[in-house]
Amino acid sequence: MWPGQCMSLKCAEEVLNVRTAYQHLTVFRNDGPWGHVMTLDGCIQLTDKDEFVYHEMMAHVPVCAFLSSPFRSSSSPSAAPAAPVVRVLIVGGGDGGVLREVLRHKLVGECVLVDIDGDVIEASKRFFPAVACGFADPRAKVIVGDGAMYVASAAAASFDVVIIDSSDPEGPASVLFGEDFYRHVLRVLKPGGVVCAQGESAWLHMHLIESMMKMLRTLVGTLPTTAGGAAERFSEVKYAMIYIPSYPAGSIGALLAVKASGENTDEGRGAVTSALATVSPLSMSADVAEHLKYYDHDVHKAAFVLPRFAQRLNHSS
Length: 317
Known about the structure:
Elements: E1 13-19, E2 24-30, E3 35-40, E4 43-47, H1 51-68, E5 86-92, H2 97-102, E6 108-115, H3 118-127, E7 140-144, H4 147-153, E8 159-165, H5 179-188, E9 189-198, H6 206-219, E10 234-243, E11 251-259, H7 269-277, H8 286-289, H9 297-303
Helix pairs in contact: 1-7
């Protein structure tokens, strides 16, 4: 995945080293600023020091974009917190960090997390309790199983937000980068719903990012509905850049797309774009914001402002 490059952190104590049914899982303690570190097949997944960066962005960018969209099918984001309306699916994300952040939103009524490797979930509960705290929330439904199979069998238009918190496209996560998988993601999203996927680094994986975005814009977006009605498609696809020091090249990205509704046709494309790249102040309450260390609405907007070498990613739709 990273030719000619490696990333390493000093291991002061190895606290877990197991080969699960799917991958090599290790947790070690760094005696510098990073604290506990989890790796899968030798690749850093999270550290105590900077886990909040990735988890906050992967959760709050899509949820706040959905809550800001004029085309979403649920009620206004100003609705009373006692009446949750948003249903979220997380595919992967067994460490629980994205789940924790999603469930900060009181408007989320249910968050389903499907991860193929239950050992990752248990390791996170044991060694990263502050990350895994969302598993105890009654709104969380946790399934140890194949995320791609779950999405393929889920009812149409059953989720408002789908978050694909996958590892790199090698090993058990490879299916989560394919066209068939995204065809089903499109199907299970409600009109106006948002998908957010781990999008790799623009510094290292530009070809992969471009091919994924082309697929979302052209291949998946032109598939007919199973009912034979109007074609389902993604009306907007964007790349957001996230800066996190423990990942290769110090950055990773998120691929986001909005499912077209009857209203967000080409005539509404500008409004859809603003639903991804800008957010309503009502999309996040003060009690959520006070817990965050990276995400806010300014960071949300800035994530879609790419450096010149990558600007073509967001100028194609």
